[in-house]
Amino acid sequence: MPKIEKMLETMREQGIPDEIISRLPMSRIKKATPEEIVAFIEGMDKQLSKEQCVAVMNEQGCNNSNKTSAAFRKFGEKYADKTLSDRINLMSELETGHKVDICRLNDDGTITLTFGFDGNKGNWSCPCSPIKKLKPYNFPLTYCGCCGAHVRYTHEFALGVKLQLKEIVSSKANSDGEKPCEFVYEIMD
Known about the structure:
Elements: H1 4-13, H2 18-21, H3 34-47, H4 50-58, H5 66-78, H6 84-89, E1 100-105, E2 111-115, E3 117-118, E4 123-124, H7 129-132, H8 145-159, E5 162-170, E6 181-188
Helix pairs in contact: 5-8
């Protein structure tokens, strides 16, 4: 779950003026509820450009621990001698709790990662437990940038490249299970 305190820190690091930041709803900065975080992000969507919102969310992400990334690191080490294209083709071997259903290198040089299909239920499932508490799912797509940052963090190890979140295309949670969690990343030098 994104944290308001961390998002504020990122905004300041990115040079977003305090005048704009002060317009964001901040009933509680520490230990905010999922509803308070959703309200904060709705405020971000109103006060910041789409690019600024994505840039802020690129620096969030939960579970960026060594334990979480161990399978991704192991995969990256195993295929360190492979090209990016080869690694993408081998992604089905990656054993994690959040299986990537699609990883593709796009014609424009970006990478698309799509995940969340629950074969048992036949629909897309959301991996974010705080979101599962928000029923009905009614929140801004920007919220899912936190998950996009987590996916960026782990897949940098597996793919052997630095990534930057470019677009939050869709999410299971804010489409009522109709669409997958899908993110587009730029490859950084």
